[in-house]
Amino acid sequence: MTIFHMKEYDCWLQGGFKAALKAELLANIHAEDGTDAAILKQAAAELREGLVRRFGIRSEGGNGVGGVFLGTAGWLTRIYGLSFPPLKPEGFHIGVSEDRVVIAGADAAGTLYGVFRFLSLLALGEIKAGDAVADAPVAAIRALNHWDNIEGTIERGYAGGSLFFKDGEVRYDAERLRDYARLLASVGINVVSLNNVNVRTSSKLITEPFLPRIAAIAGIFRPYGVRLLLSVTFSSPEVLGGLGTSDPLDARAAAWWRERAALVYHHIPDLRGFLVKADSEGEGGPFQYGRTHADGANMLAAAVKPFGGECVWRCFVYDCTQDWRNTAFDRARAAYDHFKPLDGQFAENVILQIKHGPYDFQVREPVSPLFGAMAKTRHTMEFQITQEYTGQQIDLCFLPWMWQDVMAYDTGYGATVSGLLGAQPVSARQDAARHPAAIEGLAAVANTGLDGNWTGHTLAQANLYGYGRLCWNPALGAEEIAREWCVLTFGPGQTARTVADILMKSYPAYQKNNAPFGVCFMVEPRHHYGPSIEGYEYSRWGTYHRAGREAVGLDRTGNGTGYSAQYPAAIAAVFDDPRLCPEDLLLFFHRLRYDFRMRNGKTLLQNIYDTHFEGYDEAEALLAKWQTLEPALPPAVYCSVRERLERQLLNAREWRDQVNTYFYRHTLIPDERGRKIYE
Ligand code: GCU
Q: Which tens digits make up the pLDDT trace of 481-517?
């Protein structure tokens, strides 16, 4: 095996590749340096730098008729008389002939994305003379949310400290942030929020001493086509303004926000807007004043509207002060119950951000019933790249595996999730062909931090890459994403194929280890890592499995909490019938006896045992497979991943033995294959 000297810091932008196109051709660059200069200049710089760093090709200025022609399609037509098929916003066209490469962007961002794609295709060995590629992002909003605290810590962060803050200040390494902006732009991310949605001490970021520093960060991201969002606390008029109220219908609160928005936009004129978590997990919100979420969001939207800003309002709203004795309560209902009745009441520059599932980024949840149902409100879908409930970047869990299932889910409103994403945004209401409940984009909680490899677990870089690629094209499957990422990170050849195989097996293994069949939340309540089967059972958070001697799970059908009725009738009918319900969601929708027969003819209990024995064996196989790569990898990379896979195996052992023992103790029914379960 040959070693590809990958550097963890470089992620999927590795050097050491051989270009299949002639160096003389690539070195001769004719680039636009137009009026939208920052992004176009960056596109040209990225092309030059990418060719040197990744392929060892140093470029000169453009001369003669051959070479690389880079710019917006309009410019290339004007100057060189080239013509192109119509390009979609932020899209590009790449055409290669024997003596010419043309990279034409629909606009400045499209030009930049065209450069990154060209470099990727070159590294993947997927572009040669005679090829033409046209592409454009499907999702208009491709956002990354950081949950960084101004103290420098990251809520649910597993990759070191904040890239943006330290010790109560905006503090960063500018070069590192540029490298970060490049990584994000290379997969098409165009919106980044910097601070935690639980705003706490970072509420002061929208005050004068901090704004110039935030503006400087915006300046680093800007040439990469990335605009910033700032998380703000709804209670700012009280917390920062000393107003005594933040009531959205009180003219004083609204005026405070208008003034504040003017100040913020004075410093950062292209800020995308404010991101708000309100009335949730202790954050203030309109409920405090007897107002609705529409009242709250619209007030903020009005404040940023004169500057072209948006108010991104999260739908992660539920009552976290439950009494576990109350079996009628069902937290999964919350987002739909709160927001569906408000559809149509939000201002045009409000965007609701809805978690993909009704709970909270569990290893397996159904898709939220709000998707498809919100026909009169702009909205995006929220994912979590940071592995809060999926192994915390100690365990390997390739999330695109789950995301592809979300994308393929048929909402029952005449479109799958990926179809709703492909539909045009509702903001351009003229187009009759558009699905009325189009999803305008994706947002995801970032998994990055100051660790040298950005993500703690080197292979967790694949989740960040995969998220960007999925925003670009929601129809890309997990396998394709894994293959691309592995070749771009580990070079072409067997190593990449082996790592791709490991990635693809990691999610099913993790799912088997975890809470069985969609029952969710069998974790330690504070840090959410590792099994704690009754960790949430008697808690105020409203998440229960109610395992007893004879049955487990929650009845969310019409006979139970009625949650399933939030879906269109045809979808609800599938979820309601335990023989039709997808089996990995069986215990999400049903309370079932342990002797319920699943589709493989075995009982539910036996399937719980089997999956947990298998989950351990599969974690063991992941480690064994990784060990075959020792001769092919730089020792530091090999060792850091091996160490994590070893910890994953210990974790899988706990899941297996705790879950199996728990259910054995409840049922006293042994494993039919006589495997070891503890008394
Ligand atoms: C989860 C997570 C919190 C976070 C919340 C959110 O509950 O544990 O840390 O604040 O999600 O999405 O706001």
A: 999 999 999 999 999 999 999 999 999 999 999 999 9
pLDDT band at 433 (very low <50, low <70, confident <90, very high): low
Share of the chain above pLDDT 90, in %: 95
Which residues, other chains included, contact 624 with Cβ-Cβ below 8 Å and sequence gap of 6+?
Answer: none
- Of 12 and 434, more confident: 12
Residues 105 and 147 placed together within one structural domain of the fold: no
Q: Would you say residue 579 lies in a domain?
A: no
Query: What values do phi and psi take at 110, rounded to 5?
Result: -60, -35
- State yes or no: is 32 an active-site residue: no
From the CA of 155, how far away is ligand 1's center (Å)? 8
Q: Which residue CA neighbors atom 11 of ligand 1 most closely? A: 360
Q: Does the C-beta of 316 come closer than 6 Å to ligand 1?
A: yes
Is 259 annotated as catalytic? no
State yes or no: pLDDT of 545 exceeds 60: yes
Say whether both 205 and 105 belong to one domain.
no
pLDDT value of residue 3: 77
Structural domain includes residue 598: yes
Of the candidates 173, 259, 281, 431, the residue annotated as catalytic is 281
Q: Is 672 among the residues known to form the active site?
A: no
**Model confidence at 63, in pLDDT bands (50, 70, 90)?**
confident
Looking at the structure, do residues 112 and 211 belong to the same domain, yes or no?
no
Write down the pTM of the prediction. Answer: 0.97
SS3 state of residue 387: coil
Spacing, Cα 335 to ligand 1 middle (Å):
14
Residue 341 belongs to domain with CATH number = 3.20.20.80
Is the domain of 298 the same as that of 365?
yes
Name the residue of 156, 279, 331, 381 whose CB sits within 8 Å of the most ligand 1 atoms, as the mutation to test its pocket: 156
**Overall number of domains in the chain:** 3
155 within ligand 1 shell (Cβ under 6 A): yes
Ligand 1 centroid to Cα of residue 361, in Å, is: 9
Task: Find the catalytic residue in 46, 107, 148, 360.
Answer: 360
Domain boundary, last residue among 423, 454, 476 = 476
- Residue 153 has what pLDDT? 98
Tokens 């108010």 found at: 311
For ligand 1, is residue 356 a contact (CB within 6 Å)? no
Q: 281, 273 in Cβ contact below 8 A?
A: no
Do 92 and 201 lie in one domain? The reply is no
Q: Out of 114, 135, 156, pick the residue that ends a domain.
A: 135
pLDDT per position as a tens digit, 577-610: 999 999 999 999 999 999 999 999 999 999 999 9
- For residue 354, CA distances in Å to 8, 390, 463 come to 33, 19, 20
Q: Which of 412, 427, 327 is nearest to 369 (CA)?
A: 412
CATH code for the domain of 98: 3.30.379.10
**Whether residue 74 is found in the same domain as residue 168:** no
Question: Rounded to an integer, what is the distance from CA 409 to the centroid of its chain?
Answer: 17
The ligand 1 atom nearest the CA atom of 198:
10
For residue 414, report the distance from its CA to the centre of ligand 1, in Å: 31
Q: Distance between CA atoms of 186 and 469, rounded to whole angstroms? A: 9
Is the pLDDT at 679 greater than 90? The verdict is no
Do residues 210 and 126 both lie within one domain? no
CB 579 within 8 A of CB 619: no
Strand-strand pairing, 60-61 and 28-31: parallel
Residue 489 lies in a domain: no
Average pLDDT value over all residues in the chain: 96
User: In terms of residue numbers, what domain contains 26?
Assistant: 8-135
| Res. 622: pLDDT tops 70 | yes
**Ligand 1 site-directed mutation target among 275, 281, 380, 529, most atoms within 8 Å of CB:** 281
- Residue 128 maps to a domain: yes
Alpha-carbon Rg for the chain in angstroms = 26
Q: Are residues 526 and 383 in the same domain?
A: no
Tokens for 605, please give them.
């209990």
The closest-lying atom of ligand 1 relative to the alpha carbon of residue 277 is 13
